[in-house]
Design goal:
This protein is mainly alpha-helical. It has one domain: HPT domain (Four Helix Bundle (Hemerythrin (Met), subunit A)), CATH 1.20.120.160. The protein has five helices and no strands. The mean pLDDT is about 90.
């Protein structure tokens, strides 16, 4: 993948997929189907103060964000994970979560551009 984006880097996926367009599309589309659910679950967990669920969602998202080459998003998820270990005040999670949702939308847009470039 030759194009450079600000929020994603699909070189890892392209390497795993050996450049096979259909496989890359399948991986990206799977990510696009699953990450919103984890964000929704995390939002609910934040509202209810469920540290374990917040940690679970952050952990899942960290892997997903890493897979699409989004170091910024993976870092935010890791920060949330770390705060969950300390059972910190939920209000401290909210700015991180807000930033995560914003950046996830930007990454989603870039993924759309990357998929279109594959065609």
């Amino acid at each position: 993948m030759s194009a450079r984006y600000e929020y994603i880097d699909l070189d890892n996926i392209s390497e795993i997929a050996d450049g096979e367009r259909e496989f890359i599309e399948e991986i990206v589309n799977n990510y696009l189907r699953t990450y919103p659910g984890y964000l929704d679950e995390m939002d609910s967990a934040l509202q209810s103060g469920n540290h374990e669920k917040i940690f679970f969602c952050a952990h899942k998202l960290k892997g997903s964000f890493s897979f699409i080459g989004s170091a910024k998003l993976a870092s935010l998820a890791e920060q949330i994970e770390d705060r969950c270990k300390d059972k910190g005040d939920i209000s401290g999670f909210l700015p991180l979560f807000s930033e995560m949702k914003t950046l996830a939308e930007k990454a989603k847009s870039e993924l759309g551009l990357a998929l279109a470039a594959l065609e």
